[in-house]
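Quick note —
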Amino acid sequence: MPIARAAKRATVRLGAVVLAGALLAACGSGSGDSSDTSDSAGGKVTLTVDLFGSFGFKEAGLYDEYQKLHPNVTIKQSDTQDEADYWKSLQTRLAGGGGLADVQGVEVGRIASVTQQQSDKFQDLKEFGADKLKGEFAEAKWSAATTKDGKVLGLGTDVGPEAMCYRTDLFKKAGLPTDREELAKKWSTWDGYLELGKEYKKKAPAKSAWLDSIGSLYGIMIGQEEERYYDASGELIYEKNPAVKTAWDTSVKAAEADLSAKLDQWSPQWNQAFAAGSFATIPCPAWMLGYIKGQAGDGGQGKWDIAKLPGGAGNWGGSYLSIPRAAKHKKEAYELIEWLTAPEQQAKVFQKQGNFPSSTGAIEKIADAEDDYFSGAPIGQIFGDAAKESPVQVLGVHDQNVMQQLTNALSEVERKGVSSDKAWETAKKGVANVIG
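Predicted structure written out below.
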């Protein structure tokens, strides 16, 4: 999330990810043998691709391009915009073995669950020659989808280097500077970001808050850390991790200062707020750019800009394409995902949607990219620098579940005035219930 990637890709991917909804009932084929590759005597193949959020393949015209190169292939994509709903449904179908697509998206926060707990449910891509691709991806991206015994269970689509997106028109109305370099200096720390938010609040346009939600603030901050919920040994450490406490406390401060629009991410109200000008800033993984364009529409062009993130570089989101063992067309599915994740295609998705490549070759191709929608911001440089400086994160089997429980609890602080201590206890109970 490509968001996630929301996000979700959020997302993104890991960022990703808009209206919650059920998966289409016919999103994929049932279990079958990989030799069963034709839908008719003419050798026609229909490949089903089931994703969450916006991976950008359709928007960048990649499916049309692939189908022209492979006239016997038809690609049908289904989407669930909320990644949590997507993952829940995928688990149900994996358990039953039916209703699975030929290609399934996997958010980076779930990939440890796939490699450590569900490796028997997904195809080892080395059987189709994925070995030769290892050098084309960042080591951290490749290794995260590789099991201890060497199976490769997914090819990376994108990563989620972080920045801060902001509305220049709203900043002007509130008397704040709009230059991205000047702002990066003013909010070089998260305390500086909150202080600038308090200045904004004094002269803010009507019905406009400093940021969308404290959940997005928490998510972007925790993405700056190497260890967050698990340590390298696989121990759950979120309760005693000072990085989690810092991100939590900063988010609570933002709520107490009334700097948030109190919008649940991926909700219909949140989507509408992009065009309405309901918030002036939003923590912004690369995959969020395409999401903003989709929600703010043509009327938002030139009103947005992008600056370096407070507190240093981080990563939020990024996704993989995987093939269930029960998929009907495994060979053809692999050929498709190898092509979709190749440098040329990743570069096209970035130019169209902003999803930052996980392919080292693609990163080189987009180094000089700018985005007119975001006031000509040098997105190749901004996100490229962030990607280079981001820590290699330790991922645990329930990373995404822990994240959801913490942000859900923060929403209670933000929207209902629940105390920080009470919300923290609620979060801990939620984590215990989800992961057992």
